[in-house]
Amino acid sequence: MKLNLTFNEFCSAINGQLLHGSKSGIIQQIQFDSRKIYPIPNQAFFALNGSFRDGHDFINDAYNKGVRTFVISEPKLPELHDATFIFVKNTLRALQDLACYHRQKFTYPIIGITGSVGKTTVKEWLFHLLSDKYRIIRSPKSYNSQIGVALSLLNLHEDCDLAIIEAGISKPGEMVALERMIQPSIGILTSISKAHEENFPSYDVHLTEKMALFKNVKTTILGSGVIISKEQMRSINAYQPSFGEFSKEMQLIPFQDRGSIVSALLAIATAKILKGLDSTKITTLPRLAMRLETFEGRENSTIINDTYNLDLDALKLSLEYQLALANEKKRIVIVGLEKEWFHLEDKIRLTIDDFKPNKLIFSDKPTLTDAELKDAVVLVKGTRGAKMEKIAHSYKLKQHKTEVIYNLTAIKQNLSVFKNQLQASTKILAMVKAQSYGVGLEKIASYLEKIGISYLGVAYSDEGVELRKSGVKIPILVMNPEEEGFEACIKFNLEPAIYSLNQLDELISTLISMEKLNFPIHIKLDTGMHRLGFDREELSKLMEIIQAQPEVRIAGVYSHLADADNRRDKRFTQLQISRFKETCNWISNKVPYPFIRHLLNSEGIANYSEAQFDMVRIGLGMYGITSNPYLQKKLQAVINWKSEISQIKTIQIGDSIGYSRTFIATKKMKIAIIPVGYADGYRRSLSNGKGGVFIKNKFCPILGKVCMDMIIVDVTKLDVIEGEEVEIIGENQTIEAFAKAMDTIPYEVMTSISKRVHRAYCEDD
Predict the structure, then answer these.
(1) Which segments in the chain show pLDDT lower than 50?
(2) Per annotation, catalytic residue among 36, 141, 433, 634
(3) Which of 168, 248, 654, 762 is the most buried (most CB within 10 A)?
């Protein structure tokens, strides 16, 4: 966002009070994430408070990257002699006030889009239909939150004549703030569905909250599934287009699923109201990639696939993301342009030059040597989505057609759900053992550190060493340290769990040999699980050793709950909690310093949050899995395991399928062969119809036995082609349902997905 405000204008817009520094200069750029700051002048940093981090903690980092103006809500100032500090009561509100001030400068129409699903699709398709007749500014990606809307509006500029802004809410009261900023002249309500429904007492309340965006609009276009009274229709001047009204246009839509058809209808109807509909463009509505996808590339590289479009605002966001992801690694940007975009090359180069990448390639046929690719973060952008996407995927470390995609933003949302069960001061330890339950050790750990998790937990010291070598700096608890790994724990500043006197003696001997004092350890208590841990009768001897040996200090005391998911009979868990509390109090009286107490796992947080103590440990919960029905409504699925059809065949009556001929056709059938098998983690127990996949939202059972590398499914009733996408785990088949079919639990499903299955990671912006 490029502003041009004098200092006095800026202070007035945010209702700020100058605490320290100069009143001279101008403000042209707003920042709130110190990782995304790049070296340009006249930036202001807003110290926003998030669920896991306080922006005030990153003022020094922003200062070191060149920022000299700071908007703060804590009056205590860092000692930065040439910095300017502006005090406000609430930094988020100040950012929103600035967005309101900036929005007032423009009189062109602004379309406000809200709804439970489909907002981004309608926005992008509306842009596609109108871009030849209007100069349009729109929300980047899915920037529709309290922060995202403010940032979107700060991008408004005078070279446009139409804006399209998304607005998303998750709880009552949020839309009032968004409407104050956006002040739309045209409204679109896509749907009211189950998204965030647990935060609203009824459909009508949810609808009323959404409709708050439209209180001053000229026209509101409603999605076909929105149920609204005639009185409400009149209050927002609503219009609900029908499929019959646009029957000719509907025939041109290149998609068949209902969600796409409903979104297309809204975009088409809105374009017609604005007198900008070109029916020929309906046939070219693009399939959207609304998330940045990152995956592991060859030569230890990271590839960012962001190849849907190349408008300058989207490009800048992608470059910021690359900068944050790269840290100290080299950055390569690949841009593929079609001829009609050649005239923008200079502007694109200028935008990229601000970020100073190590290498910039303008080509839709780029070449990168292995030496160039090594340890690089490569951003692939383009105006020819399919071609540039193919280029991005050509750098993949693995080319297996079966892949599992992890939604990092869903992990963050799930952590927030659990965080809301806790006091603000309670720390969170995230378990990343067993390659983060198969998701990817370094990738998930670095993401968790980025969003502000306090601690990480691993099973063995070598996992902790991997994390330290990858640059992870936050504390790491090693829960099952081998005695052979103590030296590594000491060298790499890992905090071992101590559960026996012999183990403690071995650690102290190692510390003495390495001349180390005051080394942090976590004492593990056995309160009823009867796995690793100290029994009560061992505690006196344990404390004698700790009091006598300056080599160690207690950083934490913890135990495991054996029955935390049992909500009907809480007696055993309450007994464990009581034992743990009593023992911690006893230990506290024996040492002259505080230590962290932690007992609860994911299910413990869900069902026994009163026993949160100083820290909790979360594992499967952050992947959206819990037995607590109340929390389950709020959690988001993280895992999307998919493949594609390799071949389609027709078989006749009497034909058999697979090894041992366990399936014999009793009728003519159409079958699909899919490249996933028990070597990928698709267990053989799913053979002969016990398991299956979803294709085009329809369940397709396994025919015959699961092979090592492939399965065969029944697609007789489907119109499918080779290359068609196949869902193994996703919207139609949850990981819980898949695990149940395998007679196991989600933990085993996640950790059993083979390393040869390609892993990709996406983030919603």
Answers:
(1) 765
(2) 433
(3) 168
